[in-house]
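User: Hi! I'm working on a homework problem where we have to compare a predicted structure to a textbook description. Could you give me the structure for the chain below?
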Amino acid sequence: MLKGLGGLGDMAGMMKKAQEMQTKMAEMQDNLHNIMVTGEAGAGLVKATATAKGDLKALDIDPSIFNGDDKEVVEDLILAAIKDAQTKAAERAQEEMGKLTEGLGLPKDIKLPF
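Assistant: Happy to help. Predicted structure tokens:
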């Protein structure tokens, strides 16, 4: 169709791919809000659940760790569980981005902005 225009035919194809990628990235961003990851600390005594976007959704604390003398330990476990959940969320988001870029023929480890 655009043979007579030289490299412009390739440009049209690239623009179409860019639009397709933009649509798929928007869909992936929406999906990250629905994917849940759970971080743990203290051998599972404290669990933090977050979306793959990193939004904290739930905190589960085993009642056995509540002892007045262990306040600092409990606080540390809560922070550790939240950090673990955030790390897992970032890893999951990167994994989802890798699936998207591979599906579009791009290298899996390409760094694209969120």
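For your comparison, note the following. The CA atoms of residues 15 and 21 lie 10 Å apart. The helical segments are 8-32, 71-103. Good luck with the assignment!
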